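Technical annex, item 7. During the second reporting period the consortium partners agreed on a shared format for inverse folding records so that results from different sites could be compared directly. Each record opens with the tokenized structure and is followed by the designed sequence. A conforming record, contributed by the partner at site C, is shown below for reference.
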């Protein structure tokens, strides 16, 4: 009879022998998740009840899985309803609870999964045991102390447990009548007061990346290549003494894109390895998969290449002024026809960007870049040119819980406004309290018949001033990238770059980044719906939700913009950016 009674003093088996796996961790890592490599580890969240352990843990799980990193959250309450349902809260049961969870975490980690364990685990010796179990088999273990104070936890008291413990209805409650031993030397301590969950998650992600658990591509950290103000004078003095090459206005625009971090994790103009990855896979593949569908390269002439080939550092000048230093430059052939065929699907000098490529240098130079101060254009619009870091701060200041971005190179028409306002409505219906629109017109080079940037910005501002778009939930800023008119290939770049601002939704329009074919017969280069379809499948963009474009037109019966109803086709008048530009040029009111 006594043998059938479950007690906390469990009998140990003496006839058990560990078996060796036939599959190595590295082999497991290559097929698990979408980011090749073994990433198994255990992250142990400890802290008082209500500190935010599970909230952070589950948010981190969501973040990692969305980026192709397999992970699984083990929560104290969940485990006690299954694996540990036979354990109570006496000290020996608490010890056994933690030991079992540590063993489970170790198995998850050994399989290549990031195990996220959220347990009060009040005693140092139990957490030390969990660490030791991992250390013995060579698995990484990270202790994260969610150090929210008892006072704050009692204020939150989401489950009402502190109130019951104070009333004596719950005995042995940690922090009230049982001690909590704070970690002596955790890998990370997080105080959640006045901190967003996303901030806490990023803090852990950066620790994991520093310890080479996660690839650099997973870290949503903007890589700003601008020399800090305190080092600028010294860097400029160095640049003045270096061999230099003159760059074009187009090159300077791409330098601004790199310098401000829009192309993170790129640290400079592409080297040949990065260029080939971009051309053949639309991604950067080193240290994880990062979508990078367009090459960011610096063409130079044969004469400049021969002059600079032996240099270890080069200064880039625009109109004679030093703008950046390239370190350890690498020169490689600029295969223009192949580049264009892969990027645009054609090689036709009637295409304006292809024409610029054809006329550029026969060599490309890549290397790490240091930008000598913030690039400004002094055109009265620099205050709109917010960097990704500045936009993140702006959204935080606005308490945005969702950011949806809209890319455009034309004036906003009522169809666009209908789409953007409908997107906001959808997000509110999904439970978001403060969705913010990033109205983000492209501000780099555009073809000659596009509306000038200054005119577009004036029109965008008027749209907001008149309340067509809510100025309290809209941020108007300039995206510094040049326009390439490369269709579905380019639209991936537009979406990826907005991720650096913290945007998590992206509105894709009809025929994004497209243009008419330069040769007869009259037709578009790209099929109008392919941009949206490609975005939904593109690697490296899974954390960005794509909001597909609904076809909007002027409803002549309702005398207002509406979403097109194919059953009333004759009632709708269709508009487009091309048509709007034509009306504006001819002075006709739409």
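Designed sequence (site C submission):
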């Amino acid at each position: 009879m006594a043998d059938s009674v479950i007690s906390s003093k469990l009998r140990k088996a003496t006839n058990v022998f560990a078996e060796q796996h036939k599959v190595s961790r590295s082999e497991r890592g290559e097929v698990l998740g979408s980011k090749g490599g073994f990433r198994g580890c255990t992250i142990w969240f400890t802290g008082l009840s209500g500190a935010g352990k599970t909230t952070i843990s589950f948010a981190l799980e969501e973040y990692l899985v969305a980026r192709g990193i397999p992970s699984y959250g083990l929560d104290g309450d969940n485990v006690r309803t299954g694996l540990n349902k036979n354990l109570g809260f006496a000290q020996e049961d608490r010890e056994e609870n933690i030991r079992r969870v540590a063993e489970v975490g170790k198995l998850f980690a050994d399989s290549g999964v990031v195990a996220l364990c959220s347990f009060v685990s009040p005693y140092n010796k139990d957490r030390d045991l969990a660490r030791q179990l991992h250390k013995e088999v060579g698995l990484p273990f990270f202790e994260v102390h969610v150090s929210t104070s008892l006072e704050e936890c009692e204020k939150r008291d989401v489950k009402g447990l502190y109130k019951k413990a104070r009333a004596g209805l719950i005995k042995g409650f940690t922090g009230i009548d049982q001690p909590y031993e704070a970690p002596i030397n955790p890998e990370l301590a997080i105080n959640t007061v006045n901190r967003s969950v996303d901030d806490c998650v990023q803090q852990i992600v950066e620790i994991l990346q520093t310890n080479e658990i996660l690839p650099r591509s997973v870290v949503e950290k903007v890589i700003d290549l601008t020399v800090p103000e305190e080092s600028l004078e010294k860097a400029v003095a160095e640049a003045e003494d270096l061999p230099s090459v003159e760059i074009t206005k187009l090159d300077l625009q791409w330098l601004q894109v790199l310098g401000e971090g829009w192309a993170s994790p790129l640290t400079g103009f592409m080297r040949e390895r990065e260029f080939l990855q971009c051309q053949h896979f639309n991604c950067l593949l080193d240290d994880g998969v990062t979508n990078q569908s367009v090459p960011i390269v610096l063409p130079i002439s044969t004469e400049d290449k021969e002059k600079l080939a032996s240099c270890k550092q080069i200064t880039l000048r625009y109109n004679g002024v030093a703008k950046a230093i390239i370190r350890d430059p690498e020169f490689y052939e600029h295969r223009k026809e192949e580049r264009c065929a892969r990027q645009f699907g054609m090689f036709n000098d009637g295409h304006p960007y292809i024409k610029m490529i054809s006329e550029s240098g026969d060599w490309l130079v890549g290397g790490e870049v240091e930008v000598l101060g913030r690039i400004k254009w002094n055109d009265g619009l620099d205050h709109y040119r917010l960097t990704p870091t500045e936009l993140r701060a702006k959204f935080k200041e606005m308490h945005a819980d969702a950011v949806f971005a809209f890319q455009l190179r034309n004036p906003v028409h009522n169809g666009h406004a209908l789409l953007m306002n409908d997107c906001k409505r959808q997000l509110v219906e999904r439970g978001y309290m403060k969705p913010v629109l990033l109205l983000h017109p492209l501000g780099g080079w555009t073809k000659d018949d596009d509306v000038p940037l200054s005119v577009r910005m004036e029109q965008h501002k008027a749209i907001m001033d008149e309340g067509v778009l809510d100025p309290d939930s809209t941020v108007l800023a300039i995206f510094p990238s040049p326009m390439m008119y490369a269709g579905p290939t380019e639209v991936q770049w537009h979406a990826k770059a907005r991720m650096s601002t913290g945007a998590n939704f992206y509105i894709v329009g009809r025929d994004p980044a497209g243009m008419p074919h330069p040769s007869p017969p009259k037709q578009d280069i790209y099929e109008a719906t392919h941009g949206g379809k490609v975005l939904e499948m593109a690697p490296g963009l899974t954390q960005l939700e794509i909001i597909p474009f609904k076809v909007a037109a002027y409803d002549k019966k309702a005398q207002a913009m509406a979403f097109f109803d194919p059953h009333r086709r004759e009632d709708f008048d269709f508009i487009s950016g091309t048509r709007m530009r034509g009306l504006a040029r001819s002075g006709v009111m739409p």
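The first strand starts at residue 41 and ends at 46. Confidence is low (pLDDT under 50) at residues 1-8, 12-18. All partners now use this format for quarterly exchanges.
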